[in-house]
Amino acid sequence: MPEVRRYVEAEFPDVAQASSIDRRTLLKLMSASFALGGLAACNGSDASKNAPLLSQSHNMPGYTPGVPLTVATSLPLNGFGRGVLVKVQEGRPIKIEGNPLHPASLGATDVFAQAEILSLYDPDRSGSPIQNGIPRSWEELTNFIRPVRNELVVGEGRGLHILMPPTSSPTLNRLIGQTRQLFPLAQWHVFSPIDDNNRQAAAMEIFGRNVDLIYDLSQADTIVTLGGDLFAEEPGHLRYAADYQNRRRMQDKDLPRLFSVEARPSLVGARADERVIIRAREFEAFTLSLAFAIEANAEQPSDAHPAISRLANELRRSGSHGLVVAGQELPAHVHALALSINAKLGAFGTAIRAVEPARVAVEGAQGLRELAEAMEAGRVTHLIVLGGNPVYTAPADIDLAALIRRVPLSMHLGQHRDETAAACQWHVPEAHPLESWGDLRAFDGTVGLRQPATMPLKPVLSAEEFLGLMAGQNVDGRSLVQVTWREAWGDAFGERWARSLEDGVIDGSASPAIDISTRVDWQPGAADPIPSAGIDVMFAPDPSMWDGSYANNGWLQELPKPLTKQVWGNAALIAPETASIFGLSSGDAIDLSVEGRVVRAPVWVMPGHAPGAVTVTLGYGRRQAGRIGNDIGFDAYAIRPSTQPWITAGDIRIVGGRVPIVSTQQHHSLQGRDIVRTVSPDQASAQETEKLPSFYPEWPYQEHAWGMAIDLDACIGCNACVIACQAENNIAVVGPEEVAKGREMHWLRVDRYYGGNPVSPDTYFQPVPCMQCEKAPCEVVCPVNATVHSSEGLNDMVYNRCIGTRTCSNNCPYKVRRFNFLDYQGTDYTASPDAMNPQVTVRDRGVMEKCTYCVQRIGAARAEARIEDRHLQDGEVMTACQQACPTQAIIFGDINDPVSSVSQLKKNSRNYALLGHLNTQPRTTYLARIKASTENG
């Protein structure tokens, strides 16, 4: 014992002065010494051990240089995992696809998953520790942390508070448990600006326990959504969109009925058979009336909303195949009413099931307020912010930055030197999910392993490794994850580990359904009185920025939002009636005030928005996002109160002047022509019946004739196809000034059109790539033969011939050709060369660009078939847009093959050619949207 005592004195002289150290504390300190000694390895000198098995290509038998590899992993979004496959070229991740084996993606992706490639190569990511604005080495960080940690061990964590975003990681949760044992007096706080607290509170009220709700839209005959966006904002949004469309494709069943009750337009509302527009403050009374109508089957009072009886009848008729879904922003009482309705319908076990929560419980603004009170009272001596950016995302009435500066010691783990890093004394670089080990549960509890697709690009630590240090373990993310699953699998670990790495999914890990019943003593009660003053101010995640995490991602900044088509900024969305009352038009500046706090914002007049209300999206107005995201848009968090973080009351004041808004809808759309077609469920045809004559001779295609069919009945306008095309084809970001001139470079756009009543319009989406016209008007006018027809029917661009006359663009009736006026690849918006797809040419300034049907993928599949001495099979070639689509709205293939999927769709009675009367004979055709009789007309 004396020898050990001397060791402790030499290694921890500050701890040796303690009056007494028991054996348990001594062992903790010794393990801390070994763990902290490995922190210096974060300088990247031993980064090879973090490389995935599949990316160590030089050790792989049969590996062919230049042939990309695929790594299965999981990416987080608000704490939940989505399974993806990462295409890796010579150790460089260049493209992300969905993992078909993963229940949250089913082979599809959302825009955030696609954009993670650009985030990985973000040059503004942190690369070294920083103390009070001064870069430090990892050795200096180690030397600083060691005595601090020893002091906390002796004090059992007294005064230590840890703030982190929500997580579903089994490994992180295991490490959190170990850290809690090491520091039993420490306080933990879990905060996310996009929380599910209202739904959790409702579950506690109805079932007496916290549960996650999983919807099965393939089993639902009638779906009523109350607020929110089932196809964009729910943890299982990709799966829900896929299930809903699969249900619509079932030939042996009637079409499902989708009703959307909402105050702000959404993707699910755009796809609904009927939209019911009400103000946010009316949801509680509306849902209460719906619950009573279903239970009592009685006539509604004269002042009840006319849609209630109709919705109640539809739900009763569907019975256990009826489903009511409340959005996360609605009050807990509305969620409780929705759960009660589902229970009365018998939907649990059919269209909905309850499972154990996949994530650590999110405390939301209330937990953050408790932390703020502790800091203000001086009870916080050490603060660790373990990821996220809470200084930026905190409610307006919590000045978290000022409070953090009052803490004696604060440390932030994050990917960027953001607003939170600036407020903390220490900033530690955090690893990107594509370069670190971990695991994540999906929305249904299924676990996906997170393995790195590349070695760390910078010296970084993952959250798992940071907590491993705190718990006295070594800095090795892979070992930390393996410990978790070795404990779970025992002797079967080796085999299951290898299989799970390859599949990206741990088989059989989904959460089983819980047998629950509603509390017999629960009564719905009366609705709260509706306030009469002020307008409703609604906060929502941004479809491009989410909560602000992607503000420095140029792909997402320039991605047109699904409904407004706005880029590089946000706006305050108001209804046409509200705009008329205030005398406003899109672009007019207003001061929007909530509880005395004011933010200046431009107005966007939004058809279908509830009157007397305004919607603002989160994620803009960043000050320390990076060179891309700084000073873009306005900060909605500046007026977001902690007591009512989703829906509150506010006021509008007209200030005069205008704020530029860049929207791409009118840049290339075909407004005013016969473009989007609809058919009733029993209608025979949407296509032209007469084949028009042509001056051009027909060309016999001997082998393949590539074509595409886009089902407008399946498209939900999510934009996954647009950003997938951008990532696959090295498409440049041009910046807000160039977009304002109509010079965006996207090869694929999704046009949004309205029809019917402007107050409550029908919304239609139409993806428009190059039509690959058989009789292409662009080809005959090119003076240098730069755009030509291939032997397989593709309209090709020969870049080194193009001299930039743009006559082809002038002659294109679909406006799908892009001209790179400037050297966009040489600007600050440029993606890293490491992110470029080497199979696709990087275009220089002064040439036309357009969709190529991903000709590089056709060539790769053809080469593989020749090597194996076989013919190409249907479905073997998938374009990037097709592969990303969650609803399989895009089908590509060989129209020379009469049994191919695309050939079958082109024989469908709903198939039609866009602007077919021009007789360009496009290879891309559309299937008309099926419009039920209850849709607004």
Automatic annotation (TrEMBL):
**Which InterPro entries does this one have?**
4Fe4S_Fe-S-bd, Asp_de-COase-like_dom_sf
The signal sequence is none
What sequence ranges are listed for the domain 4Fe-4S ferredoxin-type?
706-736
* Pfam families linked: Fer4_7
Coiled-coil regions listed in the entry: none
| Record's protein name | Prokaryotic molybdopterin-containing oxidoreductase family, iron-sulfur binding subunit
Question: What species is given as this protein's source?
Answer: Microvirga guangxiensis
